[in-house]
Amino acid sequence: LQVSAQDKATNQRQSITISGSGNLSRDEIEKKVKEAEANAEADLKAQELAELKNKSDQLCYSTEKLLRESTDMSESERGTIESQVADLRKAVAAENQEDMQTAFSVLEASMHKLSEEAYKKASAQSEGAEQAHEPASTPNEDVVDAEFKEEE
């Protein structure tokens, strides 16, 4: 590959040539490609394990954060979820994909249930607050609808 550039103001020209500096012969390249194809399945499994570990760590972190911030959770719920987080962390440390997937699913289901309950409570509280702020209208009020014009 050859690249050149010229500065229009000074008419100076510079160029560079990039050539392949591969020290591998064609046979060695083909051998490496075949090795990569042979290990593709193992690489895919390793990638899936790494992704599951990352998702598990993220779920553990967000769950622990929610536990710290949540004040209206019963101690039994808190204990159950903390136990599920510990189980997931153990599975991640052991790098056991089956156990990790199972523990992840259990904790994720618990978090969905907990989040759903929290949103229901929040919406019920906000509806109650909205009703408290609305002025109470009495049925005996005499309402007069009138129009007016400004005269100059």
Give the tags.
152 residues; mainly alpha; two-stranded antiparallel sheet; 4 helices; 2 strands
Protein model, in words:
- This protein is mostly helical and 152 residues long.
- Helices cover 66% and strands 7% of the residues.
- The chain contains four helices and two strands; from the N terminus they run E-E-H-H-H-H.
- The protein has helices at 26-38, 40-69, 75-94, 97-133; strands spanning 2-6, 13-17.
- It has a two-stranded antiparallel sheet with strand order 1-2.
- The radius of gyration is 33 Å and the shape is flat.
SSE order: EEHHHH
Structural class: mainly alpha
> How large is the radius of gyration?
33 Å
The CA-CA distance between the termini, in Å, is 84 Å
Please state roughly what percent of the residues sit in beta strands, choosing from under 5%, 5-15%, 15-25%, 25-35%, 35-45% or over 45%. Answer: 5-15%
- Main sheet: which strands, in order across? 1-2
What's the main sheet like? Answer: 2 strands, antiparallel
Taken from the alpha-carbon principal axes, the silhouette is: flat
Q: How many β-strands, per DSSP? A: 2
Mean pLDDT: 84
Uncertain ranges = none
Number of helices: 4
Helix content: 55-70%
Task: Please give a quick description of this structure.
With 152 residues, the protein is mainly alpha-helical. The protein has helices spanning 26-38, 40-69, 75-94, 97-133, and strands at 2-6, 13-17.
